[in-house]
Amino acid sequence: MPMLAIVLTGLALLGAPLPDRSADPSQQFRAANEAYAQGRYEEAVEGYRAILDAGHASAALYHNLGNTYVRLDRVGPAVWAYERGRRLRPDDPRLRHNLEYVRRQAGLPRTGLPPRGLSALVSGWPPLLLFGLGVLSLCGGGLGVVMRAAPGRLLAWPSPGGWGALGGGLLLVAVALGTSYVQALERRGVVMEAAVPLRAAPTDTAAADTTLRPGTMLDLRARRGDWTRVRLGDQSEGWVATPQIGDV
């Protein structure tokens, strides 16, 4: 129980009556937090999911949603929520701690699936920050070129510092775009339900090679209709019904 208390801390428990779904997201968030504090966990889940359905996602929201799923003993959705939160805030210690706790309690690998190939190289790189730094460097280099323009000429040959700023900016922008592309290609999912069969073919009649536990991380390879071809951490592959997977 002490460990569970530590895991489920961090909620912004502000009192408010539960509003309708058209209400302000901050009011919905406070109302869902109060429902959680009062032990009305299904109601809290409904409130948090309503905010997500309206397009308002945040690491704090996924953190609280994951805590609520833990209270409901729903391992798959809890892992999904924490993983979604870490996509938005990779270094959040609460999300990392809670995710490790849930996986440990469920007997799952502590770290999920490690990135592979180029994804491992750019794992954790922030594309938006790299792009912003590249644009600033380009602007600084361009300004240096203009400031050094000789009288009667549009542009003068820039100094080595100007060339360095321009070249560095172009490199950062290219790295940011490449990082964003590689990270987008890495598609991961979580088994949301209990005893999900991993089948040899995308059909209910195909043989089930194994049964996946809720919270298992999957590498999503391809989709065919209502089925998704997945790869496990041991490199084995198979097909899982798409509705039984939560995209991370």
Describe it for me?
By secondary structure, the chain is α+β, with helices and mostly antiparallel strands. The protein folds into three domains: 2-106, Tetratricopeptide repeat domain (Serine Threonine Protein Phosphatase 5, Tetratricopeptide repeat); 120-185; 188-247, SH3 Domains (SH3 type barrels, Roll), CATH 2.30.30.40. The chain has nine helices and seven strands. The chain has helices at residues 2-7, 25-37, 41-53, 59-71, 75-88, 93-106, 118-121, 127-147, 160-185; strands spanning 188-191, 196-199, 208-212, 217-224, 227-231, 237-241, 245-247. The strands form two sheets. Strands 6-5-4-1-7 form a five-stranded antiparallel beta sheet. Strands 2-3 form a two-stranded antiparallel ribbon. Strand 5 (227-231) and strand 6 form a beta hairpin. Helix 4 (59-71) runs antiparallel to helix 5 and helix 8 (127-147) packs antiparallel against helix 9 (160-185). The longest helix is centred in the C-terminal third of the chain and has 26 residues, at 160-185.
